[in-house]
TrEMBL record:
This is Reductase. GO terms for cellular component: cytosol. The lineage of its organism: Bacteria, Bacillati, Bacillota, Bacilli, Bacillales. Gene3D superfamilies: 3.40.50.360. Keywords: Cytoplasm, Flavoprotein, FMN, NAD, NADP, Oxidoreductase. It comes from Ureibacillus manganicus DSM 26584. GO terms for molecular function: FMN binding; oxidoreductase activity. It comes from the Bacteria. Its main location: cytoplasm.
């Protein structure tokens, strides 16, 4: 069975991101097709990315603060990124968390759940481009939610019921691709 991490995309104290991630996990846990885990990037206390060499240049190089982060991403087979859209992109905290690592992301699958004033569509597209460099295969369907209709007063998450169907399509693809990509990583695949 594959292990899928549901990664938060915000570290702000006032974030609603955790509410969305918990919703994703509650739906995912009903499925029984993978092991799902909520992975809150805020828990890893990663400082601003300011390393002497990029992770892509040295497979062995991981910043001291990122060792636990590296271990967590290494043990996962796929991801659901839950990202808000800030200024038409992903948050700096999420970008830094991705940039700290390279090989740990390689040949894994991801889906995106986004939200924002324009449904987080630009953040989703931004994340697709960012994840292409560390060789993460981002699945086609994505969940896009509005701060105006899926949140009460932009603070309390209250998603429209149809989002659950879309999320299940994302999860279907992430589980299938994560399973297939295990063989690319040289791991035994059991269905």
């Amino acid at each position: 069975m594959v292990k899928i991490g549901i990664l938060t995309g915000s570290t702000r104290d006032s974030r609603v991101n955790i509410q969305v991630a918990e919703w994703v996990k509650s739906i995912a846990d009903k499925r029984g097709d993978a092991e799902y885990e909520l992975v809150d990037i805020k828990d890893y206390n990663l400082p601003r990315f300011n390393e002497p060499i990029p992770a892509i240049m040295s497979q062995d190089y991981v910043a001291r603060e990122a060792h636990v982060w590296s271990e967590k991403i290494s043990e996962l087979d796929g991801f659901i990124f839950v990202t808000p859209e800030y200024n038409k992109g992903v948050t700096s905290g999420l970008k830094d968390a991705i940039d700290y690592l390279y090989v740990e992301w390689n040949n894994k699958a991801a889906g995106v759940v986004s939200y924002g004033s324009t449904l987080g569509v630009t953040a989703t597209n931004d994340l697709r481009l960012i994840l292409s460099v560390p060789k993460v295969a981002v699945v086609g369907p994505s969940v896009a939610m509005s701060l105006f209709t899926d949140f009460q007063d932009m603070r309390e998450f209250n998603p429209a019921p149809f989002h659950e169907d879309t999320l299940n399509k994302v999860l279907d693809d992430v589980v299938a691709w994560s399973t297939a990509l295990k063989s690319v990583r040289g791991l035994e695949v059991s269905v």
